[in-house]
Amino acid sequence: MVTDREQTILEHLTELRERIVKSFLALLVGTIVAMFFTVPALEFLTAPLGDKVPQTIYPTESLLVYFRIAFIGGIAIAMPVLVYQIVAFLLPGLLPEERKYLYFLIPGVTICFVAGVLFSALVMLPAAINFMQGFLETVVDNRWALDQYISFVTRVMFAMGVVFQTPLILLFLAKIGLVTTDQLRGFRKYAVLLTAVVAAIITPTPDPLNMALVMGPLYLLYELGVLLVRITTRRQKTAEAA
After folding, report:
1. What digits encode the pLDDT tens for the residues 200-228?
2. Is the Cβ–Cβ distance between 125 and 156 less than 8 Å?
3. Is the pLDDT of residue 5 over 90?
């Protein structure tokens, strides 16, 4: 139960332990559920390779990759609980008005993360993998190890899931008074440069086409965040005037 009174260090540690236990249980249940969908998920992740399916190098590689995918799926399933536990632990340091906005953003975090993962899986990775498979194909046989391939695609998908939180982050910063619509509008020219840098870091290939596939949506996410801030700010001013 969350209260506004100041907690002792022992109470903070006790609460932290309870939050960690609840998060662990949610992650455990999510991983068990995800195990039933691990094989279809693996087929989905390797689909961009076409006929060049990845190969295993060492005996336990397939087993380790199986549980890694199940664990990642468990994180996705348990994410609402994980985010809630983090938010609930931080609530004593926030004002009541700020708590309301955090509760609103909890389901949005999961939705945006899933959207980022789907974008990378359906748009970004197929284009990148097609480019990398064709690179020097007359000289080398681009057939990759399963563990390294899955590590690569999951890193990219996780990064895009995090990046897709941009509109929610901007909205929350505006709600707690750290940024305004005018400030975000004035930051647009720097946002273009920043999205270009982030796209260059995230993009797994150096070709400009794949970089543009990432940079475009990243900047649109920024503009979406500006739009959400403007709409909510306008509504708030209208409510205060009424």
Report:
1. 777 766 667 777 777 888 888 888 888 88
2. yes
3. no
Mean pLDDT, the chain, rounded, equals 81
Confidence grade of residue 143 (pLDDT, cut at 50, 70, 90): confident
Integer Rg of the chain from CA: 21
Query: Where are the alpha helices (H) located in 164-207, listed in sequence order?
Result: 166-175, 181-186, 188-202
Q: Tell me the backbone φ, ψ of residue 56, rounded to 5 degrees.
A: -100, 145
Please name the amino acid found at residue 61. E
Which CA distances in Å does 191 have to 155, 163, 197?
Answer: 24, 13, 10
Other C-beta atoms within 10 Å of 215: how many? 20
State residue 2's pLDDT score. Answer: 46
Burial of 123 (0-12, 13-18, 19+ CB in 10 A): middle
64 vs 93, residue with greater confidence: 64
Q: Which residue type does 50 have?
A: G
Within 8 A by CB and 6+ apart from 236, the residues are none
Spatial CB neighbours of 221, under 8 Å, sequence gap ≥ 6 = 163, 164, 166, 167
The C-alpha atoms of residue 32 and residue 46 are separated, in whole angstroms, by 22
Residue type, 232: T
Give the pTM. Answer: 0.75
Crossing angle between the packed helical segments 38-46 and 146-163, to the nearest 10 degrees? 90
What six digits make up the tokens of 32? 């068990």
Q: Cα–Cα distances in Å, from 39 out to 52, 129, 187?
A: 18, 21, 44
Structure token pair of residue 81? 């609980």
The region, left, alpha or beta by phi > 0 then psi within -120 to 50, assigned to residue 141 is: beta
